Amino acid sequence: MPSMRGNRHFIRRPHQEKDISACGIIGFINRDGTRVSGDAIIRSIANMHDRGNGLGGGFAAYGIYPEHADAYALHIMYDDERAIAETEALIRNTLETEHAETIPVHPNGTVTEYPEFRRYFCHAPDVEERDADEYMVRLVMRINAKIEGAYVVSSGRNMGAFKGVGFPEDLAEFFCLQEYEAYLWTAHNRFPTNTPGWWGGAHPFTLLDWSIVHNGEISSYGINRRYLESFGYACTLMTDTEVVAYIFDLLVRRHGLSFEQAATVMAPPFWQDIDRMPPDEAAEATALRQTYASAALNGPFAFLFGYNGGLIGLNDRVKLRPLVVAERGDTVYMASEESAIRVVSPDLDTLFYPVAGQPVIARLYSETAEKTSVAHGGTVHGN
Amino acid sequence: MATEPTLAPAVMEPVVISAAGLSYRHLNEQVRSAIRSGATEITLNDVMGHRYIGTGIHAPGVTIHVNGVPGEDLGAFLDGPHIIVHNNAQDGVGNTMNEGRIEIHGQAGDVVGYGMRGGRILIRGDVGYRVGIHMKGYRDKQPLIVTGGCAGNFYGEYMAGGCQVLLGIGQSDKKPVVGQYCASGMHGGVMYIRGELDGWKLGKEVQQIPLDRHDREFLKPVLEDFCETFAVKEKLLEFDRFVRIAPVSARPYGRLYVY
Questions:
Q1: This prediction's pTM
Q2: Is the ipTM value over 0.95, yes or no?
Q3: Pick from A170, A173, A354, B133: CA 20 to 30 A from residue B259's CA?
């Protein structure tokens, strides 16, 4: 295998564990479901080149596998042949695979040494549809935790994550992202100040079709991790952002919370703000804070959260990281910098800064009753 | 006796630079080079997130026009020039600015005028969080930020001097003139806010008081400057709609320190 010269350990885990801070994020969704190539997201994230330092970049893309839309698309990165053999044996024993292939890559620029990437389009056999997601989550945790040198990059239906060490525009070329078409793209440019840049530590972090790109640092990582472990989640990727993907899965998929409620858990309102809420709202916010204290995120963050039905942006409750939202026609953009949006969409219908701690939720029209603007709560300009 | 030759001031054509394809370093080198050559009118086109435009430039009498969206820290440590942005600006405008003038004809992001110590910033639209925090003033160095729209949380937090004017154009029930923690920790300077202000949003160190004659005399030319700069016709001179916010005590923390 030419990409794995001498079985070098490209994705070996770092020896030390630290936090990260300061990155660039951008995402956009075509709410009418129109799929577009990676060209726009690449130009957007490349415009924020200086926010990263070449030690991490990545993308999530939704709607890219219509020919296998019903199958779980497993993207896996491998360190060596043994990891491949062990993982593929596990996949053979636990899943029905309708198609498997190597993910095409083109080394270039800052991306010259890299692990092996393969993808598998699978179904969970003899499992009720309702339980299939849980079955997949457990399998992902098992691969990440038990098989040395194998890491699941993404595991959702009709979506995929592509990430690694390098500048994001180089990684986009490496993964040939101009050849994929998606209705929802997110991207990340990493500036790891506390954890070494390694392939598994790049964003996005994913589980099923949940994906997250994040600028900031989750100071509550230790508490969040222990809490998640009590529900069977294994944090193996050595970077704080990983917990956010699993918290979303726990709160929304397993516990049935709305995205708004999940946002209240992660960026809880201050008690003095709860005191000023109407009684019903105050009771709900109090219950969420008390029940999910260990899922609250402490520290500065701006993150973009993608799933098959939409794109969500959220800031920490005092807004210690930048986030701007804009709309143009059926497209909603969310980014660290306005220029990253203007570079691909010079004229915008609205542009606003979200209110700290309040999520901006842009759903596909097929998921909503009305085609309403996402511009509420923030400061809105028709510029 | 030799007389010193008098050089006629070089008459420079306005300099136009396209930022397209340039890194922020190359763009800023070209701006500095033009100023060294005597340029007093510089227009930057196709700006798209280029950082540090005008940063640290000590050159009174120079005007820089920015077309496009400038990047972070526009006019940081600015010392004299006049920067006019014809679109929106991002975060960190006028960071620790010392002298000069910045006009933003759109809106601006978070932390405008952080630690500003002199000069004037005018913004036509809204601003984000933490605008004018840690501003300071000393004798004739009295920085001023005028915001036409509304502001987010932590407006004027830890202000130690200078002045902020918030006009709140476009404020409504759903869009308050200012967010929470306004003037928290403020212990110097003054702010004037136009519109309805909920007392609970204010820091404990300040009080709201009606304007007096001195305030009106100070505000009149400031508001005229704003209206003229942005061709705004709104009736901004209704002084009864303003409140003055200033610290209760000059040294609220004086007793907390040990010498």
A1: 0.93
A2: no
A3: B133
